[in-house]
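TICKET: design request
STATUS: open
ATTACHED STRUCTURE:
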């Protein structure tokens, strides 16, 4: 990781518009978003739901909650991105949305601990998705806005690296706090978790708003609401068929990754029989994070040299091998090893696939198209949650069977996602 950071600082500049440190400035907000969602989805929400729903239906309720929220993310990101593309604020097209969306998210976070019903948690989580994705859609356009094409693989690798670090930086601390919470010592533990997440969001947002130098929005550009809503989800299928295959492939790969992440805590609790599911989940995420860190930066450079598609397709097959290891050998050590393989696959996929996305977007509509990319990212994560009722159904038939079905489905998602990349004709 230190080598990667040194390479960033020593990289050649792309003219006056992009300085060396700008690689960090334009991607730091991804660190905070990853910390937020990784902590909530993997540890906080599963344990919080055990206060509110029955044990036999925990996977079903977790799946329903996160599925609905991620559907909202799918809808919000392209719209926010399209509005951003057409905005004319004097201090840039992207940063106003990042500021407003982040502040709304920070105000909503305490609601996760304030209310004692599943319905209230459901509403708060959905509003949190709307606000965070209002910021995320425009944020994602910084790379095509500010980075020359020949450096986008590097920039995408840095973006992915910071997202990985964000995903694991707080997870051990969050797991410790939530372990105390789930042990019956409710007290202040959940509030410490939510406060830490709010602080990280605020810090990254302030750093982004104050340090990223955008060009002013186009004079006379006004994001008319209804035309923008109509155009937000429109893809020219004739001129961009590759983008559709790209979206389907990304959707399947993220379905696999999100399925394992979402139900990992309950899997470790019910199948591996660990004493502290929160701590074991943190260990799994850290193992995956180490694998991602090891892979993400080399994969970004390799994507610039041998092609985005080849690296992304191989990473999907590697992910299938990690799932297969967890399926065939459900012991704790093998699960951690499988998680490390999944991390390597995810790191390679994230950097190479995002670089491919920046190649495929339409000129002048970068934020909208990268928002549409979230149809695959959040869509895959949302569809992954639909297996929750199936897990509970098969577990009722035979304990542990539902998790075997879950891992078998993930294996198929990985293989199919890799195969679909062969249809993409962009940079191979």
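STATUS: resolved
RESOLUTION: sequence designed for all positions
ATTACHED SEQUENCE:
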């Amino acid at each position: 990781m230190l080598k990667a950071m040194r390479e960033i600082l020593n990289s050649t500049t792309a003219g006056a518009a992009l300085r060396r440190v700008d690689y960090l400035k334009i991607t730091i907000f991804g660190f905070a978003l990853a910390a937020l969602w990784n902590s909530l989805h993997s540890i906080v929400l599963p344990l919080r739901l055990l206060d509110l729903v029955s044990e036999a239906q925990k996977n079903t309720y977790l799946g329903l909650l996160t599925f609905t929220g991620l559907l909202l993310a799918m809808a919000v990101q392209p719209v926010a991105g399209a509005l951003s593309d057409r905005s004319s604020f004097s201090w840039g097209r992207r940063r106003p949305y990042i500021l407003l969306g982040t502040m709304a998210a920070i105000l909503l976070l305490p609601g996760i601990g304030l209310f004692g019903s599943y319905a209230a948690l459901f509403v708060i989580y959905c509003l949190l998705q709307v606000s965070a994705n209002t910021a995320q859609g425009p944020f994602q356009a910084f790379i095509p806005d500010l980075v020359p094409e020949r450096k986008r693989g590097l920039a995408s690798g840095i973006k992915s690296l910071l997202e990985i670090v964000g995903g694991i930086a707080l997870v051990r601390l969050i797991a410790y706090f939530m372990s105390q919470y789930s042990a019956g010592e409710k007290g202040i533990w959940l509030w410490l978790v939510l406060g830490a997440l709010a602080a990280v969001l605020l810090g990254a947002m302030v750093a982004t708003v104050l340090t990223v130098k955008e060009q002013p929005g186009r004079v006379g550009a006004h994001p008319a609401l209804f035309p923008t809503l109509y155009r937000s989800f429109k893809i020219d299928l004739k001129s961009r068929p590759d983008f559709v295959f790209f979206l389907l492939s990304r959707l399947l790969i993220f379905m696999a990754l999100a399925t394992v992440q979402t139900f990992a805590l309950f899997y470790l609790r019910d199948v591996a029989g660990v004493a502290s599911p929160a701590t074991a989940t943190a260990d799994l995420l850290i193992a995956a994070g180490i694998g991602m860190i090891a892979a993400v930066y080399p994969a970004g450079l390799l994507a610039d040299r041998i092609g985005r598609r080849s690296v992304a397709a191989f990473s999907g097959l590697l992910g299938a091998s990690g799932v297969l290891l967890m399926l065939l050998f459900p012991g704790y050590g093998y699960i951690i090893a499988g998680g490390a393989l999944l991390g390597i696959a995810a790191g390679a996929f994230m950097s190479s696939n995002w670089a491919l996305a920046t190649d495929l977007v339409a000129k002048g509509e970068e934020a909208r198209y990268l928002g549409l990319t979230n149809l695959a990212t959040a869509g895959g994560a949302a569809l992954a949650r639909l297996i929750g009722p199936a897990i509970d159904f098969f577990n009722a038939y035979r304990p542990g069977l539902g998790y075997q079905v879950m891992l078998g489905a993930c294996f198929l998602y990985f293989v199919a996602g890799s195969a679909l990349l062969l249809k993409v004709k962009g940079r191979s």
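CLOSING REMARK: The chain is about 75% helix and 0% strand. The first helix runs from residue 2 to 10.
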